[in-house]
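User: Just a sanity check before I run the rest of the batch. Below are the structure tokens for the first item. I only need the designed sequence back.
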């Protein structure tokens, strides 16, 4: 991590603590109480949250959207505070209510449910809603676009999911408190935030603190979030986890997104849009100082990729494609979807960044998950502590100084323009920015390309593209029989590494080669 980033994080911690501390001291409530509650809960048998009435669970998406929160019912609106709270109704995939508390100078107060907070589809529907139903979660607003504007920037609702945006973003990928056995044959578990404590900030505050209690079959947890909306929006997280049982694959700081198809994949039959995705790649800054870029795919079968790290310095799912012409979708506006970057606090030790890619036939399913997994086994009775910052905003939030992958194109290696080797693939990787910006078009830039898992690199070349102001690495590679095509490549000038390391895994069964 750069000294600049360390100093920025340190200053942010000091500033946020100064903003939130007075209310906490007056209320006599702090993170230790949530930790104690989580630890006590872990010693008890797991009890699943009480489900909301069946008619609410059976709502389709359109019907659920007809239940609307009344903006004038936002909590803290009367004090004209920068932060306001909107409530989320249960229903559809929000199958249980949560407890929401407000912490202020007078103490801790439970937020009671009020049916008048919502507009329902009709009177008959409203009459069926229980008076003690409860809320499924909440949305925080802040004047990102100027004074008097209540922009939604952070939503907590559903299991341990929360979603954030920065100024200029529209909602896209999600963050999670924790992931448990994601992608494993045993099946994924979805622990839930079951109780929240919202610390009421002063009207002019630019940061806010909140706590959450996590409960699940295999673990409990206590979370502290300090949120600062802006460009980017930053969420600082402290998590203390108490495993009830052994966990094979614990996911720390999970990110969940959607990738249907992109520039590096064939367009599905009948689709007119060039690309459809919330994120287009995974970026990792591992403990060796190397930056790894892995473009996302939509595989035919479940794919899990593991990237070894030692004191990982950061990772995230990014949306590098930010031009409307890359999507041509005036409704979804995928070019506005945020990127998310995780920066660990302290040394997380040895572990792996895990990328899970799940097949999907449409854009309605979140089919991509990325998280960090500790190397040490997770056993019951432990107390696990993690701290990290989540930055949400544009694709440059990682502050990487290397040349970055601008696009990846993949095609057959036995077609005109691709090559004349049957069964091979042509990979086109364009790099731009960073150290490449200062190089003359005639500079002797070379590529370092490695085949993995039996992949043979048949040829590779590098040239400057004056039409696009980019440097292009072209690779012809042949996979081993019935094996994926796995490659790594980066650009170099003499002994200087210029770019991040592009890494790719094309499954043996794929739409590119018609297999």
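Assistant: Here's the designed sequence for the first item:
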């Amino acid at each position: 991590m750069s000294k600049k980033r360390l100093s920025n994080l340190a200053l942010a911690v000091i500033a946020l603590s100064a903003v939130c501390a007075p209310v906490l001291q007056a209320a006599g409530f702090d993170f230790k109480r949530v930790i104690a509650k989580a630890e006590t809960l872990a010693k008890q048998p797991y009890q699943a949250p009480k489900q909301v009435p069946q008619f609410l669970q059976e709502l389709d998406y359109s019907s659920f959207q007809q239940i609307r929160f009344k903006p004038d019912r936002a909590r803290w609106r009367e004090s004209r505070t920068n932060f306001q709270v909107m409530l989320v109704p249960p229903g559809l995939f929000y199958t249980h209510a949560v407890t929401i508390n407000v912490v202020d100078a007078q103490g801790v107060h439970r937020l009671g449910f009020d049916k008048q907070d919502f507009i329902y589809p009709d009177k008959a529907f409203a009459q069926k809603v229980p008076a003690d139903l409860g809320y499924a979660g909440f949305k925080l607003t802040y004047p990102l676009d100027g004074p008097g504007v209540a922009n939604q920037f952070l939503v907590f609702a559903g299991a341990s999911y929360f979603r954030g945006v920065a100024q200029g973003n529209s909602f896209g990928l999600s963050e999670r408190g924790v992931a448990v056995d994601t992608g494993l044959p045993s099946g994924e578990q979805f622990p839930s935030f079951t109780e929240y404590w919202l610390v009421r900030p002063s009207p002019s505050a630019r940061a806010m603190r909140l706590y959450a209690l996590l409960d699940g079959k295999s673990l409990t947890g206590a979370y502290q979030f300090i949120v600062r909306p802006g460009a980017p929006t930053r969420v600082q997280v402290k998590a203390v986890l108490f495993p009830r049982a052994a966990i094979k694959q614990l996911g720390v700081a999970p990110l969940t997104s959607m990738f249907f198809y992109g520039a590096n994949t064939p367009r599905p039959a009948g689709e007119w849009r060039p690309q459809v995705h919330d994120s287009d790649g995974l970026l990792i800054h591992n403990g060796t100082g190397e930056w790894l870029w892995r473009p996302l795919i939509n595989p035919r079968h479940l794919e899990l990729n593991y990237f070894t790290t030692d004191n990982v310095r950061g990772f995230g799912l990014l949306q590098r494609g930010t031009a409307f012409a890359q999507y041509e979708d005036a409704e979804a506006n995928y070019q506005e979807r945020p990127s998310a970057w995780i920066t660990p606090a302290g040394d997380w030790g040895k572990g792996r960044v895990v990328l899970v890619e799940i097949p999907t036939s449409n854009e309605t399913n979140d089919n991509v998950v990325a998280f960090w997994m500790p190397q040490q086994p997770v056993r019951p009775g432990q107390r696990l502590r993690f701290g990290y910052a989540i930055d949400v905003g544009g694709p440059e939030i990682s502050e990487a100084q290397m040349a970055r992958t601008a696009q990846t194109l993949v095609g057959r290696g036995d077609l005109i323009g691709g090559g004349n080797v049957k069964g091979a693939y042509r990979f086109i990787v364009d790099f731009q920015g960073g150290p490449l910006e200062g190089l003359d078009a005639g500079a002797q830039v070379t590529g370092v390309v490695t085949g993995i898992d039996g992949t043979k690199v048949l040829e590779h070349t590098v040239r400057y593209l004056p039409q696009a102001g980019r440097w292009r690495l072209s690779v012809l590679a042949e996979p081993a029989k019935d094996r994926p095509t796995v490659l790594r490549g980066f650009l170099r000038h003499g002994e200087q590494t210029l770019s991040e390391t592009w890494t790719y895994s094309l499954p043996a069964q794929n739409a590119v080669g018609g297999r």
